[in-house]
Amino acid sequence: xxxxxxxxxxxxxxxxxxxxxxxxxxxxxxxxxxxxxxxxxxxxxxxxxxxxxxxxxxxxxxxxxxxxxxxxxxxxxxxxxxxxxxxxxxxxxxxxxxxxxxxxxxxxxxxxxxxxxxxxxxxxxxxxxxxxxxxxxxxxxxxxxxxxxxxxxxxxxxxxxxxxxxxxxxxxxx
Length: 174
Hints:
Strands 1-2-3-4-5-7-6 form a 7-stranded mixed sheet. The termini are far apart. A hairpin with a 2-residue loop joins β2 and β3. The protein has 5 helices and 7 strands; from the N terminus they run βαααβββαβαββ. It is α+β, with helices and mostly antiparallel strands. α1 crosses α3. The mean pLDDT is 93.
């Protein structure tokens, strides 16, 4: 199968809403947001997500016109943190998993992140039980820098998150 990878635009807001709600219903332990709250949001909420001023982009994979995978990249807004970005909202529809779509989408996102002036690294958090996602990030060059126990409470069950980072350029510790 061949898939189209691209940054979402305003015409994709309905598709983003559909896949985002599927993600929150299918994998509640992998997201800080919850289905109940986001399902009540107006269509403009998803258009606003696409157009957020700090977004580098919401990246999507399409099978024809159907959005089947997504991940967002948002630059930190504070002046002292503009060198950082956050990977968020990563999800691939279950029927499309195991085909390398997320890996290809992640590589596209990293390539575009490296083109952003002054952006030095990307951070993310991943549920410690989500070993497939954790392995995807490790294969793409991310490193773990910590863990947050009890990061989320999902239906009363505490979830640990792994904190990871990817340096986009050389050592900036000097």
